[in-house]
Amino acid sequence: MDIADLFSIGAVVAALNLVLGLWAKSRIEGSIKHEYDKALERVKSEWKRTDVLLAERLAAFKLLQKKLVSIRRYCEAHKNSESGNEFSARPEDLDAADNKSILIHWTELETFLDENLIFLSCSCNASFERLRDQLSLGANMELWLASDPEPEVVSSKASGYQAISNRVSECIDALFKDLGFPNET
Hints:
Elements: H1 3-83, H2 102-116, H3 122-146, H4 151-155, H5 157-179
């Protein structure tokens, strides 16, 4: 074997090594690019799903907050009518959407909560459970007040509405906390 044959074999081996190296490099790059593209698509899909979920959650929270404010307006008006404050809103000053009995407010809130329960955290749901209990007592109070009530029932009317108003504020605070916003109420 002479030197020309060795150079020929060396050139063939080098060419083969170069071809195999380029082939392996392209395969590895393709594999990495494919895995990266799959991961990127998964992240984009998750972001899109999260955006849709957050948009629906925000819309549900806005409507829930609107219902809670309506209940609070109703309670505040009834509480103010008992205190004799002439500058505060009275029940007759409320819009028709706000001037409903506690039972009607409660029923509307229950329906809405049933439809949107998936968006509430456990702590927020617990706040709404306490509000439900207070609304139950408030509905009973209003039924009792509609009959011929005892004087102590009439005198506790303002504190009953105040307790409901306090629970509504607690629920609004829980909603703000769920959204990650500080509430300055």
